[in-house]
Amino acid sequence: MSAIRRIDGELWMEGVRLAEVAARFGTPCYVYSRAAIETAWRAFDDALAGTDHLVCYAVKANSNLAVLGLLARLGSGFDIVSGGELARVLAAGGRADRIIFSGVGKSEEEMRAALSAGIRCFNVESEPELERLDAVARAMGVRAPVSLRVNPDVDARTHPYISTGLKGNKFGIAHDRALAAYELAARLPNLRVTGIDCHIGSQILDMAPLEEALERVLELAAAVVARGIPIAHVDVGGGLGIRYREEETALDIGRWCAAVAARLAGSGYSLVLEPGRAIVGNAGALLSRVEYLKLDKDKRFAILDASMSELIRPALYDAWHEIVPLAALDRPEALYDVVGPVCESSDVLGTDRLLAIAPGDGIAILSAGAYGMVMSSNYNSRPRPAEVMVDGARAVQVRERETTGSLFAGESTLD
Ligand code: LLP
Q1: Which domains, ranges and CATH numbers included, belong to the chain?
Q2: Average pLDDT, stretch 30-37?
Q3: pLDDT for the residue 143
Q4: pLDDT for 296
Q5: Are 214 and 160 in contact (CB under 8 A)?
């Protein structure tokens, strides 16, 4: 579902004009559509209606409490990677027994917090992590439920920075060491093996590598079971790619779910998924305003009030986000490099964009609902933007804009 439509030249999200959101809450500002988030989550859940499953939203994609709260009310599970994300999910009303904990570097403190909350499962990524978790669980007098994240050595054919399933990558336990790791997990008295998981990368647009990874994981699961170690669930990770530009086709949620469900039918395994971007990516936009149009030799720059501090994806991954004016106005059209005010040449939001704009005009940077606000920084002492959730005809601020004072509230000078 596309969260944004243009009606009579103006951009709307559900029943709200985005120019109104920009005027009311200021720019830069993130805005999300409740309906788009719920529709995307339901696309997974509905497609898996006949399969024992749990959709665990990957909190890292967008961890605003309002987003988590909507999903918690739908009955979602959550995939977390830190104690901070655990606290957010619980604060938003998420159920602990629907939380799975991923990540290569869990601290003892994070393990303790997750064990006391009573999470569903730890996705363990190394042998030393198994040993640490066993020791932490022993000290607490509990048994920790574990799944091993295996690295299926499959090329996700996505950007190298967001590809995680190949050998030589820090993620997961190498395929050829996985059986020995399962035997270790089964021997450790304070662990209880419950599953197997993998995640080969993000923004994957082709189903073939995901299917290949699933086959490798199922083969391994069978080998684990054959050694007398029971596996209750298979977690296929996230990674489904969305459409950032017109010529791209998103990976179809229904098709992928149907393929996994068909493959697992009769296996006795329950299914866990960890989608992030596919749920929130297209549901959000970053609203901004044109500060200056600058002509430099034969280049034109549109300098916005948003920057790499608010949305780092173009600078970091060369990612492409559609950039459009909030209102189609009568302006001369020209090709612009769209940049921010930050003092870095990489502070670029888009290059060679044909835009009809003038200083003061409102701008939307689309498909910014995933890995947008969560990756924002205060670089150049820029306060983080406000976040707004649109719900039908209302727009609700779900995070205040940071104040300049808050930027250095915890700092001090030497006496
Ligand atoms: N599960 C695990 C273990 C993950 O590491 C990730 C994402 C997900 C699930 C969710 O993946 P998704 O469904 O969102 O593709 N910052 C990058 C993306 C980094 C993804 C990190 N891991 C970007 O802006 O493209």
Answers
A1: 4-31+281-407 (2.40.37.10), 103-273 (3.20.20.10)
A2: 98
A3: 98
A4: 82
A5: no
Ligand 1: distance of its center to the CA of 199 in Å?
9
CA distance 355 to 335: 6
Rounded CA separation 130/146 (Å):
9
The DSSP annotation for 51-94 comes to S-EEEEEEGGG---HHHHHHHHHHT-EEEE-SHHHHHHHHHTT-
Q: Whole-model pTM?
A: 0.97
pLDDT at 169: 77
pLDDT at 298: 83
User: What is the number of other CB atoms lying within 10 angstroms of the CB of residue 213?
Assistant: 26
Residue 165 has pLDDT above 70, yes or no: no
CB of 203 sitting under 6 A from ligand 1: yes
Report CA-CA distances (Å) from 340 to 6, 23, 37, 294, 295: 25, 20, 28, 12, 15
**Residue 59 Cα to ligand 1 middle (Å):** 9
pLDDT tens string 62-75: 999 999 999 999 99
CA-103 nearest atom, ligand 1 = 3
Which strand (E) or helix (H) includes residue 173? strand 173-174
For residue 273 and ligand 1, the question of a CB distance below 6 A is answered with no
Q: Measured from the CB, is residue 165 less than 6 Å from ligand 1? A: no
Q: How far is the CA of 169 from the centre of ligand 1 (A)?
A: 15
Read off the amino acid at residue 8.
D
Mutate to test the pocket of ligand 1, among 202, 321, 371 (most ligand atoms within 8 A of CB): 202
Work out the average pLDDT over 337-351.
97
